[in-house]
């Protein structure tokens, strides 16, 4: 008997860490010190908060380096990191540390921001809540996915895999568990940077309906 899919949602409690940076050297120092939840917050919240934009904006670090310090090349290097592909925040942290270390080692002028424009490191605590929706088959899954909140979609597609340290999203994992391997592969292959979260929802719903048995 197939295990049903239980939908969940989430909300974040955001906190200031009391650590800030006014230049690239202090940014490097901060990235080394902050907890993994801070790295996650500054690299993934754009996907959720700016879900109406396509393509998605860069991460917080890239935005600050480019628009506040005017370090275009360094900002582009940060923006080019495919943050969604990292299941482990420590590996993502290491990538950022490598980029900053190489840049600083070149001995370039260390630009400083104006007072009040410092980078403030933040972190978030995530609370996961069950929703009153359960899918027993693909038809029910498509109907529920078409009406749940963006927060729930984001949780299952992005938050849960990162939390558990795996590459596959919750939807694809469930599709595999009920023998829908081709469907699982299709959904796993979606590029979140090329569509809004609402577009991602509609594309997934459409794909699932094509595989559902009516």
Please describe what this structure looks like.
The two termini are 19 Å apart. The chain contains ten helices and two strands. The protein has helices at residues 24-33, 36-49, 60-67, 72-79, 89-105, 138-145, 150-164, 170-177, 181-188, 197-211, and strands at residues 5-21, 119-135. The longest helix has 17 residues, at 89-105. The chain is elongated, with a radius of gyration of 19 Å. Helix 2 packs across helix 5 (89-105) and helix 6 (138-145) runs antiparallel to helix 10. The protein is α+β, with helices and mostly antiparallel strands and 214 residues long. Strands 1-2 form a two-stranded antiparallel sheet. It folds into two domains: 5-9 and 127-211, no CATH class; 13-123, no CATH class. 52% of the residues lie in helices and 16% in strands.
Write the layout of secondary structure elements.
Layout: E1 5-21, H1 24-33, H2 36-49, H3 60-67, H4 72-79, H5 89-105, E2 119-135, H6 138-145, H7 150-164, H8 170-177, H9 181-188, H10 197-211
Helix pairs in contact: 1-5, 2-5, 3-4, 6-10, 8-9
